[in-house]
């Protein structure tokens, strides 16, 4: 048997993941044509490389179809309820940094904090007859965050892309989205609420607790942990 | 934990037995749809219910929800029937995702009893509690009671602005935010309020962004004015804050709570009607044979878990098992009815029990 390692199948996230493993003596390689989704692991026996969309890696780990996987910590927390029962966090990898934040129109001079947002939502609902809409694709994380902070009178509306445009298009009053530089937000006349973000995300190596771990898999895993200089 | 060792058919038989008991006490047995339009529920309960309910979409009917509780459909059915007063009982499945407690069942059977009778609220409260207490007596459960109406009356009576009272009332069911609002409106919060307004004034001076979205400039300016007023308004007195804290921390047997509340009412007259209501309920419970001398009462009980209750609240729990869901809960929900009745006031009190939990406690298989 072999350990299956799932990594993002394209883009910067894949390149940075290759670099991260290479710096630790493990060479991951795409095989065949550049766009072919297959790969090999050199420098260690017993590991099979699986190239996947970053957004599918949490599900595959939770289902135990891969043993290890690299994906954003935001995706794991949003997609998997009770994520830490199914997955273990092995190593934050130091790249792919992005914050999940809540942003409102810059013209809202009266709103900088969650307190302000809550008060504005109350007045908005009284005036417009419906709850203030926050556009996002991170429903679980955003709901948990707003609940923990006691914000009321809002609703989450689904937005799978171009989320920053929803306010101008009158389909939402505020947005909750991932940002690394904030350029898109500024270009759309939005500002980030002050205080801690909903979640600070980075690329992370996860381990599946549900995958079949045979004795020989555990041996490979402990060798891998040594190479990666991970504690137990 | 899912009460898996008990078969569904046994749970259904127990549910039927309980429903028959409530019918024998004068309730009309009713059925409601399992698939409900989501809109009303979402508007009433907000994101919490969307997160916990199974929502699906129908191309013709829009968003639909698997019944997360019976209260709303039963209230709606009652309004359409026009009968008054009325007593109902029902039994059936409810569906709730258990994100935070994955080992609890997402589908379980509830049996409920609801009273729509405005003639004597204290008697109606006592009637529901006493019936539940009778049914559950053999199980040796711990009963908890409270009254959200006491805290609401105290807030309504605060000697401060309507805006502050409204802000506090809105967050009665979110203790953490309620507490932070109390701080902000108190002497300790004066600096925070001044800073808030100064920050907003600085934003205004620097503001050059275009107005986008549905929230208008007027709405923004209204809030700026509100912050300005709040910054200069004198704080809620330390005496009143202390009384609120006293009320919030009350946890005693009913007779002791009553005497403590009567003392507080000397300095806070606004709570007197609510305290008198509590006293009337205690008398009504006593008249129905409930052991009020030893009944627990906690002013803050039900604030986090029972979002729409606004008066009497109660629950029955398996002793020493805080990890398990309550065997039964209930309370008064006049405000919810008045929202659903669009201003028509229909005083209502009721409760639900979980037959699977009853069987589990009986057979000690927890």
Automatic annotation (TrEMBL), chain A:
<feature type="domain" description="ATP phosphoribosyltransferase catalytic">
    <location>
        <begin position="54"/>
        <end position="217"/>
    </location>
</feature>
<keyword id="KW-0368">Histidine biosynthesis</keyword>
<dbReference type="Pfam" id="PF01634">
    <property type="entry name" value="HisG"/>
</dbReference>
<dbReference type="GO" id="GO:0000105">
    <property type="term" value="P:L-histidine biosynthetic process"/>
</dbReference>
<keyword id="KW-0328">Glycosyltransferase</keyword>
<protein>
    <recommendedName>
        <fullName>ATP phosphoribosyltransferase</fullName>
        <ecNumber>2.4.2.17</ecNumber>
    </recommendedName>
</protein>
<comment type="function">
    <text>Catalyzes the condensation of ATP and 5-phosphoribose 1-diphosphate to form N'-(5'-phosphoribosyl)-ATP (PR-ATP). Has a crucial role in the pathway because the rate of histidine biosynthesis seems to be controlled primarily by regulation of HisG enzymatic activity.</text>
</comment>
<dbReference type="GO" id="GO:0003879">
    <property type="term" value="F:ATP phosphoribosyltransferase activity"/>
</dbReference>
<dbReference type="InterPro" id="IPR001348">
    <property type="entry name" value="ATP_PRibTrfase_HisG"/>
</dbReference>
<dbReference type="GO" id="GO:0005737">
    <property type="term" value="C:cytoplasm"/>
</dbReference>
<keyword id="KW-0028">Amino-acid biosynthesis</keyword>
<comment type="pathway">
    <text>Amino-acid biosynthesis; L-histidine biosynthesis; L-histidine from 5-phospho-alpha-D-ribose 1-diphosphate: step 1/9.</text>
</comment>
<keyword id="KW-0808">Transferase</keyword>
<dbReference type="InterPro" id="IPR013820">
    <property type="entry name" value="ATP_PRibTrfase_cat"/>
</dbReference>
TrEMBL record, chain B:
<feature type="binding site">
    <location>
        <position position="96"/>
    </location>
    <ligand>
        <name>L-histidine</name>
    </ligand>
</feature>
<feature type="binding site">
    <location>
        <position position="303"/>
    </location>
    <ligand>
        <name>L-histidine</name>
    </ligand>
</feature>
<dbReference type="InterPro" id="IPR041715">
    <property type="entry name" value="HisRS-like_core"/>
</dbReference>
<feature type="domain" description="Class II Histidinyl-tRNA synthetase (HisRS)-like catalytic core">
    <location>
        <begin position="229"/>
        <end position="352"/>
    </location>
</feature>
<feature type="binding site">
    <location>
        <position position="110"/>
    </location>
    <ligand>
        <name>L-histidine</name>
    </ligand>
</feature>
<dbReference type="GO" id="GO:0004821">
    <property type="term" value="F:histidine-tRNA ligase activity"/>
</dbReference>
<protein>
    <submittedName>
        <fullName>Histidine--tRNA ligase</fullName>
        <ecNumber>6.1.1.21</ecNumber>
    </submittedName>
</protein>
<dbReference type="GO" id="GO:0006427">
    <property type="term" value="P:histidyl-tRNA aminoacylation"/>
</dbReference>
<dbReference type="Pfam" id="PF13393">
    <property type="entry name" value="tRNA-synt_His"/>
</dbReference>
<keyword id="KW-0436">Ligase</keyword>
<feature type="domain" description="Class II Histidinyl-tRNA synthetase (HisRS)-like catalytic core">
    <location>
        <begin position="13"/>
        <end position="173"/>
    </location>
</feature>
<feature type="binding site">
    <location>
        <begin position="308"/>
        <end position="309"/>
    </location>
    <ligand>
        <name>L-histidine</name>
    </ligand>
</feature>
<dbReference type="InterPro" id="IPR045864">
    <property type="entry name" value="aa-tRNA-synth_II/BPL/LPL"/>
</dbReference>
<feature type="binding site">
    <location>
        <begin position="69"/>
        <end position="71"/>
    </location>
    <ligand>
        <name>L-histidine</name>
    </ligand>
</feature>
<dbReference type="InterPro" id="IPR004516">
    <property type="entry name" value="HisRS/HisZ"/>
</dbReference>
<dbReference type="GO" id="GO:0005737">
    <property type="term" value="C:cytoplasm"/>
</dbReference>
<feature type="binding site">
    <location>
        <position position="114"/>
    </location>
    <ligand>
        <name>L-histidine</name>
    </ligand>
</feature>
């Amino acid at each position: 048997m072999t350990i299956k390692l799932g990594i993002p199948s394209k883009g910067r996230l894949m390149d940075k993941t290759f670099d991260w493993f290479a710096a630790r003596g493990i060479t991951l390689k795409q095989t065949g044509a550049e766009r072919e989704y297959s790969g090999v692991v050199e420098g260690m026996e017993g590991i099979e490389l699986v190239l996947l969309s970053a957004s599918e890696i949490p599900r595959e780990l939770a289902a135990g179809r891969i043993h290890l996987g690299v994906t954003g910590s935001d995706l794991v927390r949003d997609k998997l309820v009770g994520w830490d029962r199914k997955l273990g966090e092995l190593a934050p990898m130091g790249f792919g940094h992005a914050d999940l934040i809540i942003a409102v129109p810059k013209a809202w001079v009266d709103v900088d904090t969650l307190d302000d947002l809550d008060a504005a939502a109350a007045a908005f609902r009284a005036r417009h007859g419906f709850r203030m809409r926050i556009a996002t694709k991170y429903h679980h994380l955003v709901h948990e965050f707003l609940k923990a902070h006691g914000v009321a009178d809002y609703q989450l509306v689904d937005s799978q892309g171009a989320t920053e445009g929803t306010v101008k298009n009158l389909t939402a009053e505020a947005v909750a989205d991932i940002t690394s530089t904030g350029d898109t937000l500024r270009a759309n006349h939005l500002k980030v609420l002050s205080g801690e973000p909903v979640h600070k995300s980075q690329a992370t190596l996860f381990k599946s607790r549900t995958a079949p771990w045979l004795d020989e898999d555990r041996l490979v895993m402990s060798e891998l942990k040594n190479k990666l200089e991970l504690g137990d | 934990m899912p009460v898996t060792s008990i078969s569904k058919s046994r749970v259904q038989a127990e549910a039927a037995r309980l429903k028959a008991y409530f019918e024998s006490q004068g309730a009309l047995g009713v059925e409601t749809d399992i698939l409900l339009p989501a809109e009303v529920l979402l508007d009433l309960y907000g994101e919490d219910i969307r997160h916990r309910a199974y929502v699906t979409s129908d191309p013709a009917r829009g968003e639909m929800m698997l019944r997360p509780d019976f209260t709303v459909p039963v209230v709606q059915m009652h309004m359409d029937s026009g009968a008054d007063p009325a007593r109902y009982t029902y039994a059936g499945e409810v569906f709730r995702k258990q994100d935070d407690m994955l080992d609890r069942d997402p589908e379980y059977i509830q049996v409920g009893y609801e009273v729509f009778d405005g003639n004597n609220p204290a008697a109606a409260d006592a009637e529901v509690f006493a019936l539940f207490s009778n049914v559950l007596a053999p199980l040796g459960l711990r009963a908890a009671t409270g009254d959200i109406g006491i805290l609401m009356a105290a807030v309504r009576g605060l000697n401060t602005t309507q805006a502050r009272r409204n802000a506090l009332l809105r967050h009665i069911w979110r203790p953490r935010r309620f507490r932070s609002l109390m701080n902000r409106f108190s002497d300790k919060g004066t600096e925070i309020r001044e800073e808030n307004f100064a920050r907003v004034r600085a934003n205004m001076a620097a503001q050059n962004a275009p107005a986008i979205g549905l929230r208008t400039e007027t709405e923004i300016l209204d809030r700026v004015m509100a912050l300005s007023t709040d910054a200069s308004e004198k704080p809620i007195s330390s005496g009143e804050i202390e009384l609120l804290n006293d009320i919030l921390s009350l946890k005693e047997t009913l007779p002791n709570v009553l005497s403590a509340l009567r003392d507080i009412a000397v300095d806070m007259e606004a709570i007197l009607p609510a305290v008198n209501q509590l006293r009337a309920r205690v008398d009504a419970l006593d008249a129905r044979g409930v052991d009020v001398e030893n009944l627990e009462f906690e002013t803050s009980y039900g604030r986090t878990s029972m979002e729409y209750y606004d008066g009497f609240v109660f629950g029955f729990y398996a002793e020493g098992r805080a990890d398990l869901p309550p065997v039964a809960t209930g309370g008064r929900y006049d405000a919810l009815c008045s929202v659903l009745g669009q201003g028509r006031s229909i005083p209502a009190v009721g409760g639900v029990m979980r037959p699977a939990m009853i069987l589990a406690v009986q057979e000690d298989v927890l």
